[in-house]
Specification:
0% strand; mainly alpha; single chain
C-alpha cells in the first residue's frame, strides 16, 4: 500500500513576509536613478542660482549704464514718472488678485470652494502684472539706472533687481516637477513682497508728492 504524497501548495503571502528578491537588472536601474526629493532640491538650487544671476546682472547693468534721463513716452501720461507710477499701481492691484486667488485655491478661506475658473484667473493676473512691470523696468534701467542717492531710491533699486530674479526662479521651479512643495509659496511670497516694496518706494511716493495726476 502506497501512501500518497502531500499536495504541493504555493506559499501563502503574509503582510510580514519578506518581498521577493528583485532581479539584478531592476536593482541596478533603480540604484542608478536619484531619488525624487534629491532631484527636486537640485532643481530648486539651480533655479535660485539663475534667479540670483539675473538680479545681479540687472544691478550691474543699471550701475554701469549711463543714465539717459528719458524714456519712451506712453500716450495719456504727462511724464515717464507718472506712467511708471500708474503702471506699477496696476501691477500692484493684479498681484493682490493673484494672492487672493492663490489663497482660495489652497483653501485658506473657510467655507469657500475654489471655482473652476480660479486657476485661470491666478495665472493670467500674474502674467498681466509682470507685463505691466516691463515698461517700468525699461524706464528705470535705461532712463535712471541703479541709483542710491537716498534710502528710498536705494531700496527701490534693490527690490527692482530682486523682483525679476525671484520671477525667473519661480518660473523655473514651476516648470520642474518634483520641486519641494514649499518652494512655490516661498518664491511667490518673495515676488509679492518685492512688488509691494517697489510700489511703496515709487508709486505711493509719487502720489503723495505730486497728487493723483496722470
Amino acid at each position: 500500500m502506497t501512501i500518497p504524497k502531500p499536495e504541493q501548495r504555493a506559499p501563502i503571502a503574509t503582510p510580514f513576509a519578506p518581498p521577493p528578491a528583485s532581479s539584478s537588472a531592476s536593482t541596478s536601474a533603480s540604484s542608478s536613478e536619484p531619488p525624487p526629493a534629491r532631484t527636486g532640491t537640485a532643481g530648486l538650487l539651480v533655479a535660485v542660482t539663475v534667479g540670483t544671476l539675473v538680479s545681479v546682472g540687472l544691478g550691474v547693468y543699471g550701475r554701469a549704464h549711463e543714465a539717459a534721463f528719458f524714456a519712451v513716452s506712453i500716450a495719456g501720461f504727462s511724464s515717464g514718472t507718472a506712467a511708471k507710477a500708474w503702471l506699477a499701481t496696476g501691477a500692484f492691484v493684479l498681484v493682490l488678485v493673484q494672492v487672493g486667488s492663490a489663497m482660495v485655491m489652497y483653501g485658506r478661506f473657510p467655507g469657500v470652494r475654489a471655482p473652476s475658473w480660479i486657476g485661470g484667473l491666478h495665472r493670467w493676473s500674474g502674467r498681466a502684472a509682470v507685463l505691466l512691470t516691463v515698461p517700468v523696468a525699461v524706464h528705470c534701467l535705461y532712463a535712471l539706472g541703479f541709483q542710491d542717492g537716498s534710502p528710498r531710491v536705494l531700496l527701490h533699486s534693490l527690490f527692482g533687481c530682486f523682483f525679476y530674479g525671484a520671477f525667473v526662479a519661480k518660473m523655473l521651479v514651476l516648470n520642474r516637477p518634483g520641486s519641494p512643495r514649499w518652494s512655490l509659496p516661498v518664491l511667490g511670497g518673495a515676488l509679492f513682497t518685492a512688488l509691494v516694496a517697489l510700489w511703496l518706494t515709487s508709486s505711493l511716493w509719487f502720489f503723495t508728492t505730486s497728487g493723483l495726476t496722470f
